[in-house]
Amino acid sequence: MTRSAREFACCVAMILAVSSTRPAFALDPRYPDWPCQQLKVPEISIASVWTGPPIEATDKEKPLDPKEAELVARLAARRTAIEDARKLIAEFVVGTNEEKQEKAKRLFAALYATLNAQREEVMNGIERFSRKQKAMADEIREQARKIREMQDASSADPAKSSELASQLSWQTRIFDDRRKSTAYVCDVPVLIEKRLFDLASAIQGDLGADQPAK
């Protein structure tokens, strides 16, 4: 077997793997570019993470003062440990019951707006990544077809064929490496939603801390 033939055989095996991943690009027909096993939910449901005082649309639009904005940024950042986040929340949600209710609503609404926007940005990035992968898969299959035609031709240039097969092999390996990273990037929206849930639980916990036991 010549070098170009070996390279092409390797490419064919990898292209079969590329082709086998194609159905995963459209697990949900509503979102054809969504490649994740997790179903795409465009927006976090407030009811799924918050059982505290009702949050109105206006609550999510209220401007924060600089100190509150800084607190929200620190709480939203995953580098802030959740235990540290709970302490920051406890220091903020203080005062009379009415004051605590208002602060809790304002803090959660700001965190929801921030983390939901981050999650949406990540999901948009995942879909852009998916579109690039699909385009690359189509290009790989087309290049493989051209190489087959070249090798079948009576006037085939072995050197050119070998060069193209080598390029195709490299491109297919890049595709496969990116495909393997999909599971990791698909976890990010889930982690953001979990963080919002944990922060909301901490806020609600502080609201109930001074309530008499039933």
Can you put this structure into words, describing what you see?
The structure is a single chain. The chain is mainly α. It has one domain (3-208). It is 70% helix and 0% strand. The protein has seven helices and no strands. α4 packs parallel to α7 (182-208) and α5 (97-152) packs antiparallel against α7 (182-208). The longest helix has 56 residues, at 97-152. The chain is elongated. The N and C termini lie far apart (81 Å). Keywords: Signal. This is Periplasmic chaperone for outer membrane proteins Skp.
Keywords:
214 residues; mainly alpha; signal; Periplasmic chaperone for outer membrane proteins Skp
- From the spread of the alpha carbons, the general shape counts as elongated
Which structural category do the helix and sheet elements fall into?
mainly alpha
- The average pLDDT value, as a whole number, equals 83
> Residue ranges: pLDDT <50 for 5 or more in a row?
19-25
Helix segment tally: 7
